[in-house]
């Protein structure tokens, strides 16, 4: 990911609509891992629509600063990985 907030936003803008896995710091040594689709980017935040069968709520938003400080880590899945993960279900 980029080294500045504007670079991070550019990377996310170019990956709109792509599937991703996100790992977020949940506090107290707890890590939250979720899958979904990068839905929208705004000037200071981005929105991920979560897979409904796995999560109680529809979407989450994080700031670009969360990515910069590694509070949130994003891994974009290419089509091959998505096909493999869906065939194992």
From TrEMBL:
Q: Which InterPro entries match?
A: Protein_Veg
What's the domain of life for this entry? Answer: Bacteria
Which Gene Ontology biological process is one annotated for this entry?
regulation of DNA-templated transcription
Q: Which NCBIfam families match?
A: BflmStimVeg
Q: What is this protein called?
A: ABC transporter permease
Q: Which organism is it from?
A: Anoxybacillus thermarum
